[in-house]
Amino acid sequence: MKEIEKKLNDNGVRPTAMRILIYKYLAEKDVATSLTDIEMAFAKADRTTLFRTLKTFEKQGVVHQIDDGTGVQKYALCEPGCNCELEQDLHLHFHCNNCDETVCLTEHKIPHINLPEGFVAEDANLVLKGICDKCSGQ
Amino acid sequence: MKEIEKKLNDNGVRPTAMRILIYKYLAEKDVATSLTDIEMAFAKADRTTLFRTLKTFEKQGVVHQIDDGTGVQKYALCEPGCNCELEQDLHLHFHCNNCDETVCLTEHKIPHINLPEGFVAEDANLVLKGICDKCSGQ
DNA sequence: CTGACCTATGCAACGGAAGTGCATTTATTG
DNA sequence: CAATAAATGCACTTCCGTTGCATAGGTCAG
Ligand SMILES: [Mn+2]
Ligand SMILES: [Mn+2]
Ligand SMILES: [Zn+2]
Ligand SMILES: [Zn+2]
Fold first, then answer.
1. Residue range B84-114, pLDDT digits in tens
2. Strand C contact nucleotides, protein CB < 7 Å
3. Host domain of residue A90
4. CATH code of A83's domain
5. pTM for this one?
């Protein structure tokens, strides 16, 4: 518990009760999480607070946002080494068409792409879709 | 004009007046187009008709949908050789942070990625973001 | 301790975009 | 021409992200 408080403090986020709970919730999940997911897990908390908590976490580099193509924004905790605030940690994401979950594949970086003359890339998003390990296993 | 009618017919889309206009509009643009874009270009047409036209085009392989991370669905005509209906034509897309336009880089295919054991990829989406050729040119 | 102050939270409402149900018009075909 | 099918138009809904403003709660100077 104290580690979470420290982690948040280190990232310039005041460790309120709610924020610690949300952090804990995200830490226990191994899949990307939407605002609605959190809303259902903390039914008595206000949606706006949860929304703003995620935005604060994002700005302070506690979580990174994931666009998996479902049209719903998702979030996941940043890895210890990751420095999203400065430059994107360009790992890829996998969305399962079966269980509908999205996971970070933090070990798999997005390969460098040679662009035509005049194009300058600053950021990249790569999402693979298919069947995840849990769903293909059985 | 007759070519458009033929093209639509070949793809199993009845060439109504509206559909031909929309096709022409898409053909004249070299950037991905949203429903709202089309709505503004054809102010007197109903949004639902435009929406369903795009969906019909998509299903019949006339256009492909593009998710560029802006949260707005975009569409672009498929290349002559492309066969989106069967399998995705996995070219990448570039979104300009300056002019806010998204373009198809049809020559640039998404590289193959080695996934961890158990993951089976069926589809992929790669979007690069930065400054496009038109915006970096000056 | 106390008041001033800043931040976090809660409540309400807004806006954009995707999508659906149903009535009506337009095209097709026997 | 009549019967049928397809396309269009209108109204309405839902979902999600977002903002404005009022209140509660924690922090700190005096
Ligand atoms: Mn991730
Ligand atoms: Mn494209
Ligand atoms: Zn799965
Ligand atoms: Zn540009």
1. 665 667 899 999 999 999 999 999 999 999 9
2. 7-12, 16-21, 27-28
3. 2-136
4. 1.10.10.10
5. 0.92
Chain A 58-87, CB < 7 Å to strand D: 71-73
What is the per-residue burial (b if ≥16 Cβ within 10 Å, else e) of A66-81?
bbbbbeebbbbbbeee
Report the interhelical angle of B17-28 vs B47-59 (nearest 10°).
70
In the numeric block, which tokens belong to residue A101? 């979950």
The total number of structural domains that make up chain A: 1
Bridge pairing between strands B33-34 and B73-77: antiparallel
Cβ neighbours of B95 (radius 10 Å): 22
Q: What is the pLDDT of residues B4-39, one digit of tens each?
A: 999 999 999 999 999 999 999 999 999 999 999 999
SS3 A107: strand
d(CA A67, CA A32): 10
Overall size of chain A counted in residues: 138
CA distance B12 to B6: 10
Q: How far apart are CA A81 and CA A5, in angstroms?
A: 18
How far A43 CA sits from the closest chain B CA (Å)? 26
